[in-house]
Design a protein that fits this description.
Order of helices and strands: EEEEEEEEEH
Low-confidence stretches: 111-115
Strand order of the largest sheet: 4-5-6-7
Number of helices: 1
Pfam family, one: WD40
CATH architecture: 7 Propeller
Number of strands: 9
CATH superfamily: YVTN repeat-like/Quinoprotein amine dehydrogenase
Structural class: mainly beta
Keywords: Repeat, WD repeat
Largest sheet: 4 strands, antiparallel
Shape: globular
Distance between the termini: 31 Å
GO cellular component, one term: U4/U6 x U5 tri-snRNP complex
Number of domains: 1
GO molecular function: U4 snRNA binding; U6 snRNA binding
CATH class: Mainly Beta
Radius of gyration: 15 Å
Helix content: under 10%
């Protein structure tokens, strides 16, 4: 992968080509500074094939998931309306769970909005 993500004070998330230094895409839905961006381990299967997902966190109290291959579409948003739920950082970690003698790897987003993770997980993982 020859890309890098950036979050900005101008409320945008940008995808850049490292080799050329050119901006590839810009994602605009946040309403305050974007302080954290991360490539997600999630891959979404849709009508145009597999799509890569990126994630952004902002001072607008929102975590947004973006499909980088489908024209800047926002896939999902987690948002709290409480002032102290600003998102300063986010990180995906790998959790392993043993089921019937096999290991299933799962990824979980760690953020300040733990209440909303159950709904998010149900979008990406079947029980």
């Amino acid at each position: 992968m020859n890309t890098i993500l950036s979050g900005s004070r101008d409320t945008s998330v940008r995808l850049w080509d490292i080799r050329s230094g050119q901006q590839i895409q810009v994602f605009n839905r946040h309403t305050d500074q974007v302080l954290s961006v991360e490539y997600s381990p999630f891959v979404i299967k849709n009508g145009i094939g597999n799509s890569n997902v990126i994630c952004s966190g902002s001072l607008d109290n929102a975590i947004r998931f973006w499909d980088i291959r489908s024209n800047k579409n926002q896939l999902y948003m987690i948002k709290e309306n409480k002032e102290y739920y600003e998102i300063y950082c986010l990180k995906f970690i790998r959790l392993k769970k043993k089921i019937r003698q096999r290991i299933i790897e799962r990824f979980v987003l760690f953020a300040l909005l733990f209440k909303k993770l159950k709904k998010l997980r149900s979008m990406f993982f079947k029980a």
